[in-house]
Amino acid sequence: MKSKHFRPDVDVAPWKGGHSPYDIIKEGTIALIVVGLLTLILAVVFGSPDEPAVTIKTWSNATPVDFAMTALSELNQTSTSAQYGAPYNNAAVGQKLGPLELAKWVGDRIPVNTVRDFVINPLKSLPDQPILTTDLQQWSKASSSTRNSWLTDYTKASAHMTYVNGQVTVTANNVGPVPVFINDLTQMARTGALDQALVTQSGFYTTDFTLPLLFLADGSYLANLADHQHLSGDQWGMMNETGNYPGQAWLWLYTFWYQVAPFSTSANADVLVWGVMMALSVVLLFVPFIPGLRTIPRKTRIYRVIWREHYQGTTTE
User: Fold this and answer.
1) Half-sphere exposure of residue 235, counting CA atoms within 13 Å on the CB side?
2) Which residue among 21, 65, 192, 231 is the one 20 to 30 A from 280 at the CA level?
3) Does this model's pTM top 0.90?
């Protein structure tokens, strides 16, 4: 019978050389102890690289006008969250991959109504507020056209919004209960009550921070902090860490695509980059099956450099 032809790209010849003992348990234990001690010592010396958590209370006390303007955008539904689309609402098609409307396929699985969830419901949770209670009733009884008229007039005048003596001030007429909503919500935020109200709407356990995170992202305060810490997308932010600390350098390939066209200017950058990374992952997965590509290590003989101690003095492979 004819012997099977040896295929160097696929088959592996039986090893006929020598062997050296290696205790992987011992080496692993030593590595674990060394890394553990280094981690403990460095943590004690340098502390945590993480900045304190940014809350709505922090934001509203630092820049009350920015918070109030963002609250208005939630109420008149012009904020990013209100216009985002899936999975929060149906206001936009969302991220697409060519003709594939991936976000729309998902649908509004996490329904968010910015008027109800960010403004009205939190204000309803405030106790002993007779003026606010009356204004909330006025809002609920008003028609859509009346509400839009109030919001339109207030929004036009909000360009000159100020925060003086603990009050949000906007000079405008025919605005209904909108000034009370914006002012009371700002005061609520500055006490920290809004942070709690946003996370308790969906139940007793406060583990869902979707609403406060969306609210924060709609304003400019969080984005400015990110820019200052070099965490924005155009600053390779995904692989950076807060403060002067090294970040996740292994994410460079993912972050790289956000810096070049067409990804850097596309509204669908997230899904496009995801698609590119999936394609690259598939190529990497099938490297052992791609003729020519799989022979590069053998043709370049790079293994002899890596395992030079083993091959030193040997003439056969």
Assistant:
1) 15
2) 231
3) no
